[in-house]
Amino acid sequence: MSTIKVTGTSKIYHTKKQDFLALKALDFSAEAGEVIGLVGPNGAGKSTLVKCLCGILTPTAGSIKVLGLEPHRKRKQLAQEIGVMFGNRSSLWFNIPAMESVLLMQDIYNIDKATFQNRLAHYTEILGIGDLLAKPVREMSLGQRIRVELLVSVLHEPKLLLLDEPTLGLDIVTKNHLRQLFVTLAKENGTTILLTTHDISDVEKICQRVLLINHGQKLLDADRQSFKTIESQQEVILVAPETSMPSLADHPALREKNPEWLKFVLPKKATAPFIQTYLTGAKFQVTTPDLEDILYDLYHD
Questions:
Q1: Among residues 173, 285, 288, 274, which one has the least CA distance to residue 233?
Q2: What is the pLDDT of residue 4?
Q3: Are 51 and 200 in contact (CB under 8 A)?
Q4: Is the pLDDT of residue 87 over 70?
Q5: Quick one: what percent of the chain has pLDDT higher than 90?
Q6: 3-class DSSP state for residue 293?
Q7: CA 179 – CA 64 distance, rounded (Å)
Q8: How would you label 243-258 residue by residue, b for 16+ Cβ within 10 Å and e otherwise?
Q9: What's the CA gap between 195 and 182, in Å, rounded?
Q10: Looking at residue 136, what DSSP letter applies?
Q11: Residue pLDDT, tens place only, 144-198
Q12: Residue 232 contacts residue 293 (beta carbons within 8 Å)
């Protein structure tokens, strides 16, 4: 049984002025232990999908099954099996030590004392927050709070973890703590993780698959091997601006411009003609594309 099964799912928001189609006939599935990056521009439908998966929203058409259950009909039952964390919302009590919120989660999920202590020790070590639990949440930095938020989301060891922008605004050290935990949960517990993010480095470092949606539609669903194939078909050319021709400023392959270089992304077969036409005598280098280069056109569709 798939952890997630989304079939022909659409979601329409009804407003006084007009209706808005947030998801359009979306299909995808996820298996146990998969770590999937859900990406797309603002307003693409990512958060709507996450809210449908955890039962906050009801799909307008199609079906969604999470662990074999319809989320909007079985929210209470699913709550024992899934973990959800929204980067801009908190499940922690603001004015009291974080440990009180952690103990509350022990009671909510009915975790026995021995199991609770083992999990608490294990996950606080991974997240590096052992010294934070006695601290009131109001005194924590954003990164500290997010790490504690994640702790209370995984104490019951959910089969599915839904994360909406969990690394937004975090420093490199905190991001590494979170990434380490995601990999541990997937490998040790078989937890399925669906991660929405604008940080492509999150996807490159930990995700086995990338699901890209835009305008509520699935535009790409690819695993690492598929991306290697796509990468092999493209090349990046970095051109020193002082040696580039003026006509390059309006070239359709231009992706980025800064004081050090102009960045062009082209199909591999077009690289040699581009160099011959524009870069004779110019200072440039050819390199391989990264994930952001590959996704660029789909983001701007």
A1: 288
A2: 97
A3: no
A4: no
A5: 54
A6: helix
A7: 27
A8: ebeeebeeeebebeee
A9: 10
A10: B
A11: 888 899 999 999 999 999 998 887 777 888 888 888 889 899 999 999 999 988 7
A12: no
> What pLDDT band is residue 211 in, cutting at 50, 70 and 90?
very high
199/34 Cα distance (integer angstroms) = 19
- Please give the radius of gyration of the chain, using alpha carbons only, rounded to the nearest integer: 22
Q: 246 vs 50, 61, 239, 242, CA distance in Å?
A: 46, 51, 12, 10
Distance CA(64)–CA(55), nearest Å, equals 10
> Which residue carries 């709507």 as its tokens?
48
Say if residue 137's pLDDT is above 80: yes
Specify the range with the lowest mean pLDDT, choosing from 2-6, 113-117, 233-237. Answer: 233-237
Q: Coil, helix or strand for 177?
A: helix
Distance in angstroms (rounded) separating the CA atoms of residues 244 and 253: 14
Neighbours of 89 (CB within 10 A): 9
Q: List, for residues 17-39, the tens digit of each pLDDT value.
A: 888 999 999 999 999 999 999 98
User: Could you tell me if 219 and 25 are in contact, meaning their C-beta atoms sit under 8 angstroms apart?
Assistant: no
Residue 107 CA, chain-centre distance (Å), reads 29
Spatial separation of the C-alpha atoms in residues 10 and 24, rounded to whole Å: 4
Residue whose structure tokens are 């006509």: 247
Buried-exposed string 126-152: b where 16+ CB fall within 10 A, e elsewhere:
bbebeebbebebeebeebbbbbbbbbb
Q: To which residue do tokens 């022990």 refer?
A: 106
- Using CA atoms, how far residue 228 sits from 39, 225, 233, 286, in Å, is 18, 5, 9, 17
Token couple for 243: 């040696």
Q: Which residue's structure tokens are 């698959």?
A: 209
CA neighbor of 262 nearest in space, from 279, 227, 301: 279
